[in-house]
Amino acid sequence: MSLERLVDEIRQRAEAEIAQERARLQAESSRIVDERDRQVQAIATESERIAQLEIARERAQRLARAKLEARKRVFESRERRMGKLLDASRSLLADYTESDEYAPLLKRLYGVAVATLGKQVKVRGRAEDASLLRSIAKGAFDDEPVPIVGGLIAETPAGDRRLNLSFDELLRLREDQVRGLLAA
């Protein structure tokens, strides 16, 4: 074998090995690129899924906040309306104290106070009702006026038991019932 042939054979083997290595490198590069593309696609898909979940969660939170705010505003509006109606009720009760039916009512209230607390009661009421209460309760009337819309407040002489029959207190005690009537 001649030297040239030997060199030629070595060159051919080297070129074959280089071609083989290039093919392997090309295949490895393709595999790496394919793997990278698959991972990028998987990350993009997962990111899209997470983004959709976040959007849905944010939408649900906003909707819940909006519903809560709406309920709050409806409640506040209803309470304002109810407050106005209760004020109107107090005004009607104040107007009632100017009517002819008020004196007999005070007599009945005094009768309830005497029946509940006993004959010895001390009665207080509005300054405007002083003469009427003095005539009903005689000496049991206390001249110290109380700031009420109407009615009377009775207590035992010792002060250990008290019966508040003022329109204010009666309205407060029955406010839930009044609210139910006004809401209907």
Secondary structure: helix percent: over 70%
- Rounded to the nearest angstrom, the radius of gyration is 47 Å
Major β-sheet, in short?
Answer: 3 strands, antiparallel
* Spatial gap, N to C terminus: 119 Å
Strand order, main sheet: write it out.
Answer: 1-2-3
Overall pLDDT metric: 87
- Tally of distinct domains: 2
Overall form:
rod-shaped
* Number of alpha- plus pi-helical segments: 5
Helix and strand composition category: mainly alpha
Number of strands: 3
State the assembly state of the protein chains: single chain
- The amount of beta strand, in percent, is 5-15%
Key structural traits:
single chain; 184 residues; 2 domains
Give a verbal description of the structure:
This protein has 184 residues and is mostly helical. Helices cover 73% and strands 7% of the residues. The protein has two domains: 1-96; 101-183, ATP synthase, E subunit, C-terminal (hypothetical protein PF0899 fold). Strand 2 (151-155) and strand 3 (162-166) form a beta hairpin. Helix 2 crosses helix 3 (130-137). The longest helix is centred in the N-terminal third of the chain and has 94 residues, at 3-96.
Strand-helix topology:
Elements: H1 3-96, H2 102-117, E1 122-124, H3 130-137, E2 151-155, E3 162-166, H4 167-173, H5 175-183
Antiparallel strand pairs: 1-2, 2-3
Helix pairs in contact: 2-3
